[in-house]
């Protein structure tokens, strides 16, 4: 029996995983991996921490947990995979079942035959077509070499100014990294908000936090030009004409799948531009698989194709592609629900499933609720979580959950990703059985409380809206009675400052006379997190006030200006 | 229309939740809550941290997130609930629809009529029937008064000796609290292991950690007597005759439901001794509900009745009972899967669903796998997690997950609780889509890696057993070739010390000649966490060695003695 030849193109995340998995499942296969870059298995999600200096040793980004650098010798010995670095694949000849390669250093070229081919060519950062993008000091953060450069730059220019173009996940991580490294950072985002995976009010809380940490965050304004002097960056000009001086520009407006090779070989691409694959990660050629940032995957909640260039999915996809190349199509990749998290200074921002906006864009009739609260009990040192839960209106099935704040966002988003994968409804979540102890969560976990709120809302027990809607109404000239039901000390510390009325919830039953006798006057009730406001609404409803709206998340979730 | 009278017996967790929920849903109801203890809504899970001194202010255990102490005035104002403290309910007259009460301070008695009654009488610590239990210095940690006493005792006797009877959740939390407070602590557990919700090997890792932190942990030995002098504790005598001097004994052998009142009223009790309830939290009397530690609930995985005296469930049960008392049986409580977590010094120990032992006791044919690994990447400061996943053999449905270690156990157990609630299978979990970023998890999350291991095992790709089985074989005289496939530096740092052979995995293909030429000699392969051992097994299998067993979790999960 001749040995099966499996060739893998790409050596960062999906490629090495696919190659190693294939070899483990078929020790008699010849597995060859070709990598254009000089390194293998780079922990690219760690670049921001290397730039910031919190990761000190470069090798740590390339090493196994046991501390061995994943170089070709490691791949040969431990994995049984022939890994060729600095070696670009220039063409795929599907008829001949060969690939053509070229070595960057020597110019050497050659061909390699394959029985099964796995394409894991990854993605490349998008470069906006604006003048000045070729100037020295303009970079992306997409390769280890980029990270080296940024780290050096940051060290060399303490107190210097940097502009980050794009307020997505990588943009905000880079914002933190460069700020931590001592630079004055401005993030410029053309869309009205940063972190597009969040709904606007949550994104605004993160932007506020980044500003409090010293970064400038400009939204709703694009870049028109990168300004230079003597071939180096001297600043940027925004679309509105403003100029910002800086000596470093990081472009972080997203990535595009690397599909040139696949396209030239006549493989089918999807509507999003990624390589089209089936559930077995197989392309339109039965002997070619693809995995990682270069492919188009299915969103499990909308059924729609999407690009999902994330390191965790790349590993799972690579595992499936590697198995199927070795064994035949025994493994399937079910698609993604879209889960992510990032650290932005002392906040985490995470999301799983669909945001409210994206669900509506997909034509789904949804209900949602914002919840603000503690991650653990006050006596243990509680930190704030602000989240939004999204569910299908008809069935109550949970479709999305986003969460931001200094609290333990990580647990919340991870558990809610599993809840969505399991098809849980709001009623299921309201009675979920989660691990509780004071160092780790509240007795009623934040996500369970979110379900309680949404359940009350869906049943008409609570009538509430998000603060974005309240703000829009106020901006449009509406003047509801703003009813703050906290205690006087809390009111002293901070308040909206919009002419609100303070009646502590504990006194409300006795002080109804202070409210408009016309019981139909619109009232917007809130407190610190709007739990007491819900209680107030129940009291007022029983007293005949049936035009009371609770402002979800209360002051804790209010991302707009306030007093004090 | 006459106002509905809802009476709630018990004011710690389930009771206040039920009372407040009932009032919110029916503002026109008269809701009365009677509490035997002097305080209301005590955060009893926080007692260990109050004893240790990390929670400084007693009031914080009684206060809302906004800092208001939950006393009768608070309940009257904010909740609209009449709360009577220091007031014991002495009898329920079901025919007359009244309860009899007695005030401890004044001796005053009276009756109160109800339309709907909610019993939330909680549980009491079990007291072992041994001589000396009445001595001064013998206590439990079940009430705020107990916590006050222990806190004072701990302050008054720095360097003193304490014995904790029982190595369950409360016993181990108290062990940490008293050690942190400066006492020399010995835990005495009659069962062969501490923390009965864990399988033995994981429990042993936690016990090892507690010992490393200075506590003594004795398992498999009961207490026969508490020794005294002048009416105060002077030590304990163990069942094996050993005597341990001490001046403080904390009894923590579990709790029993408080059902005397319900039993005297003729309400049906369950086989476990808890009050029997239906899915609406209704007792055998249609006008009486029960919730919290005093009830028997259904295990959702086995269908069997069980006691589940946990604060989080008490709140959920109270919410259901309160709603149903107010509105009729509109809410249901689905039962528990058994989720819990506790902090033991720098370790967390958590579990959700069934341990392997409990699943087998319930007659379920299960498969399991131990996984040891990092919580986050090494370059971010990884900490160890050791876990065991349990699934139904026939269907692959996940039934249980336990996890211990210094790493982020909290996220793991929370997400796996949701996975179990959602009915996920091992295959589902293997392709789960979780939030990933280096500060928060690995690219392949620990739980997903656990699914990969178990999936490989179920498909026969990996042949592995737990270290408990390996240890038992060695103890029985088996002498397999112990094959350590780590690097020489790792071997220098620590090793089993049982005559093992070291061949690094990267050299294995070339050094097969060093293995027994008789390819059927049993080989047990392992490494740091046994990922490389799995690779070694795949190589060896292809080379004809078909009697190779991987020791799950490798050295990181090995809880027995080793060299260095």
Question: Concise description?
Answer:
The first copy, chain A, is of the alpha/beta class and 564 residues long.
Largest interface: A-B, 111 and 111 residues
Number of strands of chain A: 30
* Relative strand content of chain A: 25-35%
Structural class based on helices, strands and sheet pairing of chain A: alpha/beta
Detail the poorly predicted runs of chain A: none
The total domain count of chain A is: 4
The CATH class assignment of the largest domain in chain A is Alpha Beta
Q: Overall pLDDT of chain A, averaged?
A: 96
Q: Report how far the terminal alpha carbons of chain A are from each other.
A: 78 Å
Radius of gyration of CA atoms of chain A, rounded to a whole number: 27 Å
Number of helices of chain A: 17
Can you say what the CATH homologous superfamily of the largest domain in chain A is?
Answer: FAD/NAD(P)-binding domain
What order do the helices and strands come in, and which of them pair?
Two copies of one chain form a homodimer.
Chain A: E1 5-9, H1 14-25, E2 30-34, H2 47-52, H3 72-79, E3 81-84, E4 87-93, E5 98-103, E6 109-113, E7 116-119, E8 123-125, E9 138-139, H4 144-156, E10 161-165, H5 169-180, E11 184-189, H6 200-212, E12 216-219, E13 223-229, E14 232-238, E15 243-245, E16 248-251, E17 255-257, H7 260-264, E18 288-290, E19 296-298, E20 305-307, H8 311-327, E21 339-344, E22 347-353, H9 356-361, E23 366-374, E24 384-392, E25 398-405, H10 409-421, H11 426-430, H12 446-458, E26 464-465, H13 467-475, E27 481-484, H14 488-493, E28 501-502, H15 505-508, E29 523-526, H16 531-542, E30 548-551, H17 554-557
Parallel strand pairs in A: 1-2, 1-7, 2-3, 7-18, 9-16, 10-11, 10-16, 11-12, 26-30, 27-28, 27-29, 29-30
Antiparallel strand pairs in A: 4-5, 5-6, 8-17, 13-14, 14-15, 19-20, 21-22, 22-25, 23-24, 24-25
Helix pairs in contact in A: 1-8
